[in-house]
Amino acid sequence: GIRDHCVTGVQTCALPILSGKVFGAEAQLVGAIQLETLEPGACDLQASLKGLAFEPEIYEIIPEAGQKIWDQYNPSGKFDFQIQATGDEFPPQVSEILLTLHETDGNYAPYPYPLRNIDGDLRYTPGLLEIDLQGGLPGSPVRARGSFELITGGKRHLLIEGYSIPIDDRVRTALGDRIAPYYDEYSPRGITDLAITLERLRLGEPLDLKVIVKPTDASLSHYYFPYRIDAVRGEIVFDISRSEEHTSELQSHSDLVCRL
User: Fold this and answer.
1) FRET label pair with 164: which of 2, 112, 120, 142, CA 20 to 30 Å apart?
2) Averaged pLDDT, 212-231
3) d(CA 259, CA 234)
4) HSE-up of 155 (CA within 13 Å, CB side)?
5) Phi and psi of 183, rounded to 5°?
6) Containing H/E element for 95?
7) Beta carbons of 93 and 82 less than 8 angstroms apart
8) In b/e form, how buried is each residue of 11-29, taking b as 16+ CB within 10 angstroms?
9) How much is the pTM?
10) How confident is the model at residue 250 (pLDDT cuts 50, 70, 90)?
11) Percentage of the chain surpassing pLDDT 70?
12) Pick from 98, 95, 73: which is nearest to 86 by CA?
């Protein structure tokens, strides 16, 4: 049930706490509403839910835009939800929505590995979505940071970084059909750091997508060179949006240097 405590002054109804349970989660509502001739006026309200699970009944009640994001990441696990609404008139407008993830699992299409044990925040303010997440498996941490303007063709920046990742067919999948032949040409194996960047710096510009591979203990081969090269380190940048490959210096423990 709901337990409430409302203190009414001459012009303000303060709500120190309204608490209860929603979908099994702890729920609270706090705030204040100004009263003008007994009609609600300016107000500042904050509602929170702690310990919600990514379950079908939650999916069914969120707006279509939220369902599209859900479908993109396919999350499972627990999260907290907080919404703040303010305004000079009643009803107030949403000023902030905050999702805090707790050991959540999911997937993101451009990043080829499952996202595990993810913690952090997704923050919505009018016209902007900000992301700051971290997690991963022991020995292979991952972090995602970025911001998205919520208008067609709006500016956006997303950086996903993973460390100590095995080089396998999942990296090839992330590169896509146009870039995969470059991957096949060098037949890489081993361990690498991996970064994916998604950027649009100006309104209406095309998205710029890059995959950055930084081998830390890898090997590769090439049909122009008769031996497999071990202990390779360096950086390879795949520009997915332009179907280009930009390779900086790669070096092996035997001081064999490749500049491609």
Assistant:
1) 120
2) 82
3) 10
4) 6
5) -60, -45
6) strand 93-108
7) no
8) eeeebeebeeeeeebebeb
9) 0.76
10) low
11) 81
12) 95
- Our measurement of the distance from residue 138's CA atom to the centroid of its chain's CA atoms, rounded to an integer in Å, reads 20
**Residue corresponding to tokens 């929603």:** 22
**Using CA atoms, how far apart are residues 31 and 8, in angstroms rounded to an integer?**
12
Q: Which helix (DSSP H) or strand (DSSP E) does residue 72 occupy?
A: helix 64-73
| Six token digits for residue 11 | 């012009």
The answer, yes or no, to whether residue 105 has pLDDT greater than 80, is yes
Task: Determine the 3-state secondary structure of 100 from DSSP.
Answer: strand
Residue 19 in contact with residue 3, Cβ under 8 Å?
A: yes
Name the one residue in this structure whose structure tokens are 């500049």.
Answer: 259
List, in order, residues 6 or more apart from 28 with CB less than 8 Å away.
17, 18, 19, 47, 48
Q: How far apart are CA 250 and CA 161, in angstroms?
A: 20
- Residue with tokens 């081998």, as numbered in its chain: 215
CA distance 226 to 89: 75
∠ CA 81-133-165, rounded to 5° = 145
**Which residue has tokens 């303007």?**
149
For residue 41, the model assigns a pLDDT of 66
How would DSSP label each residue in 122-182?
Answer: EEEETTEEEEEEEEEETTEEEEEEEEEESSTT--EEEEEEEEEEE-SHHHHHHHHHHHHHH
Does position 257 have pLDDT exceeding 50, yes or no?
no
